[in-house]
Amino acid sequence: MEQFLQQIVNGISLGSIYALIALGYTMVYGIIKLINFAHGDIYMLGAYIGYFCMTHFHLGVIPSLLIAMAICTLLGVIIERIAYKPLRNATRIAVLITAIGVSLFLEYGTMFFVTANVRSYPPLKGILTQSFKLGNIVITAQQILIVCITVILMVFLQFIVKYTRIGKAMRAVSLDRDAAELMGINVDNTISFTFALGSALAGAAGILVGIYYNSINPLMGILPGLKAFVAAVFGGIGIIPGAMIGGYFIGTVEVMVAGYGNSMFKDAVVFAILILILIVKPSGLLGKETKEKV
Amino acid sequence: MPILTVNKLTKSFGGLTAVSNVSMELNHGELVGLIGPNGAGKTTVFNMLTGIYTPSSGNITLSIDGRDIRLNGKKPYKICKAGVARTFQNIRLFKDLTVLDNVRISMHKNIKYGLLHGMFHSRLHSDEEKRLLDKSIELLSILKLDHKKDELAKNLPYGEQRHLEIVRALATEPSLLLLDEPAAGMNPAETAKLTEVIGWIRKHFNLTILLIEHDMSVVMKICERIYVLDYGIVIAEGSPDEIKSNQRVIKAYLGEDMRNA
Amino acid sequence: MKKLADIKGIKKWVALLLTYAVVQLLVSLNIINDYIMATLTTICINIILAVSLNLITGFTGQFSLGHAGFMSIGAYTCAIIIMRYPSPVSFITGLFLGAIFAALLGFIVGLPTLRLRGDYLAIATLGMAEIIRIVFLNLDITNGAAGLFIEVQYTNWLWLFIFTTGTVILITNFINSSHGRACISIREDEIAAEAMGINTTKYKVIAFIIGAFCAGIAGALYASYFYFIKPDLFGFLKSIDILVIVVLGGLGSISGSILAAFLLALISSLLQSFPEIRMVIYAVLLIVIMLFRPQGIMGSKELSLSAFKSLGGIFERRNGGER
């Protein structure tokens, strides 16, 4: 039982990271129906930016986090403007290939500058090195930090989407882009803003994963990116609470499989869940079935 | 002798009942109209008849050559194979394919060669392809589309696209043809010609036709019987003259239109 | 069976045989050296992969991101068999067995997932390929991440030629048959296709099976030419590589796929001299091509012999009838 609870704690920590990445996927998919394969690489860049902030500029965790988020935001917007915006009316597959191109560019561009070597995050100081015991369950300060930051960011995101003008615009554009445009919404800016939000969250996830796993490399974004996408699909793509639930679910499943089964198969289980959910309920946990009107 | 029997057909979407207890009977060789105001559930009935929607309850039975086939819940392609073809209200041609291919695709269900013959382009394949080509051109010529067989469907003018929809449906060799607003968007001259063509194909192909149409001039002129749908229920049934004078119909929907017809 | 009567048909066969003979001659004269032969092998394998994926994605309109998964089934099956019983007969047996296994998997995976549309199917096929890769990583018979060394090389120009032209001809024929048109109608409008009597599920599965079968052949050819296979060779990136060839050539254009396979081989051998930025340039090229010619080189048109006479025509097609 205790081991089970311990796994839950670990699962929630990992799930937080997946949830943060999944949010970006789900928002971008919701608004322009693009599986943004480059999203996982924004997360990787977030990890690297955090790394440099902490090692070269000796900044603390929170300032590094904010800087990583800011730079990732900027990158997200630039990528959207250069690579995706000109393809607004192209076929879906063309945009998807572009996204893959951007993804490769970020991965191998980063590799060119920082080499393919794995780097380890600088050791944390002070309270962040501690861990707490609840009975026999160990909760580290890092895990608390990860979950707290994730929750704060999610609340902040919900606030933006639900209660601000731009959030309303985002929801409008994702429902019907043409109608939104006719209602005077600046669709391009809204899309850029969506990329900005998603990228900021991915940047945050990157630095958190650096702290948690302590090692980063230029290709680290691929698999978590895919899994976060699975999380988004699981919860119902385009639905923000769905991405959060999906993230925590996938994180927990992965930790459980690694803990009780064969850790080599943990990724296979995640993908098997994906295929299963797609077959049973393609619209995801919270999604509504939509049928094409004839 | 009924070819199509619809018994208490109902479809609800969530809490909304779009079609409720609709019963109708189409006799062999009849041309029957299905009319009603916008949103009355006409297309929903078509979608159930062709298997795109599964009815919530009720029965659809097709009787061909003395055999009864229960249609509800069947997949669209099976219903098509059973002998029911349709056109779409919002044109759904294969628009990036040629006119000829649009027609040939409908003939696929009756081809006589298998996959391997197709892959090795056997003699059987070429003979069958020749037959398909001839038959397609014959069908296309009915609506004077044969000289446009190599054009892309999307490049045809609107009226001809509607014609192609009809040819494509005919190519499936149906016993029962469902036409969903074939005259929509056409001018009076085109409509008059279309009316003539519908009458002609019914005779020539020995068809039973169910027609949804908003243009009363078409419906009143060629339909032998009319069902009127309002809010998902059949409110009247009868000959064009009976419908014209039916108070409930006039009240529900026909009002002004009748004086013009 | 074959109808060779018309002159055009004979011309085609003569041209094919001539191509085979010329290359064979150059190989035996050692003008085509090992390096060129390896490139040529890659091109042939990529043609098989791209043309078969084009059937699934370009013609039937089903978005697949897992083609490398099918390829790996063929590669491993053939490799395991020729490592046990090294002989040309077991190579061919292994090749067809691999193709059949791949096709079987295509059937098993295809049946439930093909109900999915567009992106969802793409992700499901991606997941499937990842699962295959992870399974190969963990099996004993595949020697896990270390991979397999195959000591003998059976793939030669003759087999490459037979299987590449065979795939291209059979798939082209298929597309030009009524069954092929049934597949294309699904891409165009699934609901209308179904209403016109096309069993759309059946034809999606057929496209998937044929595509997987050919990918299996490609994998087998790969395994017995390059001596070494490991699961990571058939990962997400490989599936993407194949998709890039298809999209670059033009979705729904067989000649486009062939052209793009050559072009990509050319690009990658040019980039060989810059190993550090090879992938970066590749990525930039992808983005630039998609930005300026999203429909690929050929659109959905086919290159015909008459088009060779006016090569400039390719560029005029820009305003042609592409989607």
Brief summary:
The complex is a heterotrimer of chains A (294), B (261) and C (323). With 294 residues, chain A is mainly alpha-helical. Helices cover 72% and strands 4% of the residues of chain A.
Query: What is the terminal separation of chain A in angstroms?
Result: 53 Å
Number of strands of chain C: 2
Give the overall shape of chain C, derived from the CA principal axes: globular
**CATH level-1 class of the largest domain in chain C:** Mainly Alpha
Instruction: Specify which chain pair forms the largest interface.
Output: A-C, 45 and 43 residues
- Let me know the largest β-sheet of chain A: 2 strands, antiparallel
CATH names the topology of the largest domain in chain C as: ABC transporter involved in vitamin B12 uptake, BtuC
Protein described:
The complex is a heterotrimer of chains A (294), B (261) and C (323). Chain A is built from 11 helices and 4 strands; from the N terminus they run ααααβββααααβααα. Chain A has helices spanning 2-32, 39-55, 61-84, 92-114, 141-163, 165-175, 177-182, 187-213, 222-235, 240-260, 266-280, and strands at 119-120, 131-134, 137-140, 215-216. Chain A has 294 residues and is mostly helical. Chain A is 72% helix and 4% strand. In chain A, α1 (2-32) packs parallel to α5 (141-163) and α5 (141-163) crosses α6 (165-175). With 261 residues, chain B is of the alpha/beta class. Chain B has 2 domains: 1-83 and 174-261, 3-Layer(aba) Sandwich (Rossmann fold), CATH 3.40.50.300; 97-173, no CATH class. Chain B is built from 10 helices and 10 strands. The longest helix of chain B is centred in the middle third of the chain and has 20 residues, at 123-142. The two termini of chain B are 31 Å apart. Chain C has a two-stranded antiparallel sheet with strand order 1-2. The model of chain C is unreliable at 307-323 (pLDDT under 50). Classes of the chains: A mainly alpha (294), B alpha/beta (261), C mainly alpha (323). Chain A binds chain C through residues 29, 33, 35, 83, 86-87, 90-98, 100-105, 107-109, 111-112, 222, 226, 229-230, 233, 262, 264-265, 267-268, 271-272, 274-275, 278-279, 282, 292, 294, and chain C through 57, 63, 112-113, 115-116, 118-120, 122-124, 126-128, 130-131, 134-135, 137-138, 191, 236, 240, 243-244, 247, 251, 276-277, 279-280, 282-287, 290-291, 294-295, 323.
